[in-house]
Amino acid sequence: MQEKENNDGIVFKPIFKVVLLIFTSFIIFGALAIIFYGPRQTQVDITEIDPELLENGVHVRTGLIEADGLQTVITNCTTCHSSKLIIQNRMGEEQWNATIRWMQKTQGLWPLGENQKVIVDYLTKNYPVLEKGRRPPLTDIDWYPLEGK
Ligand code: HEC
Hints:
Elements: H1 14-37, E1 54-55, E2 58-59, H2 70-77, H3 84-87, H4 93-106, H5 115-126
Antiparallel strand pairs: 1-2
Bound molecules: heme C (HEC).
């Protein structure tokens, strides 16, 4: 007796079709959800630093701390002068913006556009004004008279 051949190739049972449909829609909607609601690139600075140029969280050539915006700072701020000038200056947002304006007016620094915020954020976060430059004053001192006076 000869077995009857199935000429349809793969037979999709109706249930299988439904599963396939659900599966495909999951992938499509999943992809759309990631595109529309996924993590957004908020930084203008999308270039990543070559890990080989870093050592212990510090960019070896410039000595700048590795953090968001590092590449933007390197590109815009280390062409005219050493990064030491940046590192030794600790300022707040206002002062950094004023320093940048001063360099733009008098030293030929180019307009930074959106990168200015990236740079100032980097600087204020990684090189903040040091609150405690000196030993805080002593409190709770138990004074006593010196003997022999
Ligand atoms: C077009 C050249 C140029 C670029 C680019 C540049 N600077 Fe300067 N900057 C200068 C010059 C010139 C000085 C004065 C140097 C001196 O006094 O020896 C200076 C001085 C400074 C000082 C010291 C200011 C002070 O009050 O003593 C800081 C801090 C500084 N720059 C930070 C930056 C930062 C941050 C960037 C990136 C946004 C940057 N610079 C980009 C030219 C530039």
